[in-house]
Amino acid sequence: MKVVVKKKQESLPLVISTEFIKLEAAMKFAALTETGGEAKEVIQDGQVKVNGEICTMRGKKLHPGDVFTFQGHSFTIHAAE
What is the pLDDT of residues 8-20, one digit of tens each? Predict the structure, then answer.
């Protein structure tokens, strides 16, 4: 199963070939952070929301339909067709 990470505002989807993506990896693929270390820090600092709630688990599995938000940028996980 492929999963697409799609930014709601004028961005291209990011396609992966797994059924889920971990939050830390999704942030890197969405170009919200440059490194995994940076993603780890902002997640553990409570700066990222998943489905409207603060998430401090960098290994949180995101599935189709999940939404994550960081610094005003929201991305929705979609299954590729």
Answer: 444 345 566 788 9
Task: Tell me the whole-structure pTM to 2 decimals.
Answer: 0.79
Residue 23 is given by DSSP the state H
Closest CA to 27 of 52, 48, 51, 4: 48
Contact 3, 64 (CB under 8 A): yes
Q: Three-state SS across 34-59? A: CCHHHHHHHHHCCCEEECCEECCCCC
Total residue length of the chain: 81
Report the alpha-carbon distance of residue 60 to residue 11 in Å, rounded: 23
* Confidence at residue 15, expressed as pLDDT on a 0 to 100 scale: 62
Query: What pLDDT digit, counting tens, does each position of 54-74 carry?
Result: 999 989 999 988 889 999 888
d(CA 79, CA 46): 27
